[in-house]
Write a structure and sequence with these properties.
By secondary structure, this protein is of the alpha+beta class. 30% of the residues lie in helices and 29% in strands. The protein has helices at 2-7, 25-38, 53-56; strands at 13-17, 45-49, 61-66, 69-75. The chain has a two-stranded parallel sheet. A two-stranded antiparallel sheet has the order 3-4. Strand 3 (61-66) and strand 4 (69-75) form a beta hairpin. The longest helix has 14 residues, at 25-38. The radius of gyration is 13 Å and the shape is globular.
Length: 79
Amino acid sequence: MAVARALITDPARVLADEPTGALDHDTRDEVADLLFGLVQGGDRSLLIATHDPDVAARADRILASRGGRVETIDVVSRR
């Protein structure tokens, strides 16, 4: 329900803090498909905080932090 409320106003930027954290794998994949599908056209930006490596692997850029500081930035090449 929280995802639906966040998207109802058709925002240009979507900030999602652990949106799949408490979900089973199938539902996690459905929510991730929805969120990442929103940004495929390039009209929106998605910032997602997650501890799930499968969800993170779908991103274009991965920022890893430790102790409140950005430790690494990985740019993922998609062809």
